[in-house]
Structure to design on (534 residues):
């Protein structure tokens, strides 16, 4: 059946230099208050950067008349497409050094327009950087280098419709430029949901999730967007690729797997058939506190290795729990949640709580969880979860260096990995800045054989040297992950910032195959240069 498009409007302005909405950023007083908690930061916050203060060069290429209506050279639009939203990007903008600003920004509306833009770019030495919501935190949407005469940012957010819903198979054909809220609002009247809610949900697109193999709402089972893919339509310089809609197939290597996680280096994902779910009717959640973080890890492992499959199973170490307001007594906090469209989940939550208590956990009674959970710690965590990127930008304005990175490792190595990050990344931060760093950890996703820890590092920087310090901390983190055979990224993608770790992690025969695919699909080497392969 056709789906009725619904585009929720907003009068709020997106920040060109930082996370999310411009009106949601901490004000000067809040920035100063946060800075006071981190000795060595600036006395007053850096000013909000202005596009008018940037040196934006004239475009290095002129599009043909047939494509001119799709393309703009507006300075503000170009500046907003220059970078993603990593700390490295934010501090460069605050310091007035955003890097290479794209010459042009295109907003195609059809597969054919994407193909025409790639044809033109390939024939004129123009690099094409795919851009969805621009929420990349790994340098995935910027151009680095000078090998191309011009740079075109290809913004797909005008391709934002749910085109078709197959209620019988419970799937939908969706354009790749649909932002999370836009997508869900179009599915809501049909009682369906994609149920993929990354932290960047408001500001990222379906195509971005697919191109980066994004992690989402579920802490177990359906942890990545891959799990919901039925088929993809991808436009490449060598032609378009459309896979069959199938529930499963054993017919050779999966064509979809070639493009999932390819980060726009092999082609532009323009449309996908996605598996949907009924909207959850039954929910229950609660929090569990632990005096000992290692006991908490054992509890989470027991839950992950059961058949309970919680939707939320996020463990906050004492520092993360304090930061989010989930705990103030030095306890670690486990946020547990279950949901279902078909049956009550109270018994599953009770069973999970029994496992947690067997490992030293303390909890109150489970509570029904509709839109506002009764559990204070759960409410505090949810609020902090959405607010954290804004607070990071506030700390950046105070000259603090804030790095976040995530990984995944098997249970037998997890404790040693977390301890090594605390000691060795902490030592690197101290050496780089002369200040002790705060290092917090939480588990975002859990599996029967391992888990995905997410680390936050905050330390006072040196004015003007924040990027170099960030690079040093990033390199130290990558070294720790590599030595413990933990992945360089569980759900943030590779981009440009994780390339060194990715090059070490992937097997060389696979690298040879990836380079061959790049040569075949992108012969002019215009698609997101520097991502995945050279």
């Amino acid at each position: 059946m056709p789906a009725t498009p619904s585009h929720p409007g907003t009068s709020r302005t997106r920040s060109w230099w930082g996370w999310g909405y411009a009106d949601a950023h901490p004000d000067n007083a809040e920035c100063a208050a946060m800075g006071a908690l981190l000795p060595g930061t600036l006395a007053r916050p850096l000013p909000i950067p202005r596009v008018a203060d940037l040196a934006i060069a004239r475009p290095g290429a002129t599009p043909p008349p047939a494509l001119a209506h799709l393309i703009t050279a507006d300075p503000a639009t170009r500046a907003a497409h220059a970078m993603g939203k990593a700390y490295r990007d934010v501090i460069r903008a605050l310091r007035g050094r955003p890097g290479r600003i794209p010459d042009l920004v295109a907003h195609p509306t059809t597969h054919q327009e994407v193909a025409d833009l790639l044809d033109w770019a390939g024939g004129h030495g123009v690099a094409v950087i795919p851009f969805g919501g621009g929420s990349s935190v790994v340098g995935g949407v910027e151009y680095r280098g000078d090998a191309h005469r011009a740079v075109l940012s290809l913004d797909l957010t005008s391709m934002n419709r749910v085109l078709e819903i197959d209620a019988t198979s419970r799937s939908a054909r969706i354009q790749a430029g649909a932002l999370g809220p836009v997508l869900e609002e179009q599915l809501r009247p049909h009682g369906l949901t994609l149920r993929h809610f990354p932290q960047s949900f408001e500001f990222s697109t379906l195509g971005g999730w697919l191109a980066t193999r994004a992690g989402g709402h579920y802490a177990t089972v359906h942890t990545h967007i891959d799990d919901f893919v039925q088929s993809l339509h991808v436009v490449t310089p060598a032609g378009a690729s459309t896979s069959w809609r199938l529930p499963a197939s054993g017919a050779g290597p999966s064509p979809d797997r070639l493009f999932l996680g390819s980060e726009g280096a092999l082609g532009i994902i323009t449309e996908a058939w996605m598996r949907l779910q009924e909207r959850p009717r039954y929910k229950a959640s609660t929090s569990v506190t632990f005096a000992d973080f290692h006991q908490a890890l054992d509890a989470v492992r027991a839950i992950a290795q059961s058949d309970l499959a919680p939707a939320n199973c996020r463990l906050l170490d004492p520092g993360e729990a304090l930061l989010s307001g989930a705990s103030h007594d030095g306890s670690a906090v486990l946020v547990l949640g279950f949901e279902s469209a078909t049956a009550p989940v109270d018994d599953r939550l009770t069973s999970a709580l029994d496992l947690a208590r067997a490992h030293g956990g303390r909890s109150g009674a489970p509570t029904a969880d509709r839109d506002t959970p009764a559990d204070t710690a759960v409410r505090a965590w949810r609020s902090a979860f959405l607010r954290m990127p804004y607070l990071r930008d506030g700390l950046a304005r105070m000259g603090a260096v804030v790095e976040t990175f995530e990984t995944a490792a098997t249970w037998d190595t997890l404790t040693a990995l977390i301890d090594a990050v605390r000691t060795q990344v902490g030592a690197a931060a101290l050496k780089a800045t002369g200040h002790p760093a705060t290092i917090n950890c939480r588990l975002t996703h859990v599996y029967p054989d391992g888990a995905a820890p997410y680390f936050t590092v905050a330390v006072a920087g040196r004015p003007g040297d924040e990027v170099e310090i960030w690079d040093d901390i990033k390199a130290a983190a990558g070294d720790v992950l590599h030595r413990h055979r933990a992945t360089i990224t569980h759900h943030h993608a590779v981009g440009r910032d994780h390339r060194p770790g990715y090059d070490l992690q992937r097997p060389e025969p696979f690298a040879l195959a990836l380079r061959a695919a790049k040569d075949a699909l992108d012969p002019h080497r215009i698609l997101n240069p520097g991502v995945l392969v050279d």
User: Anything to note?
Assistant: The chain is about 30% helix and 20% strand.
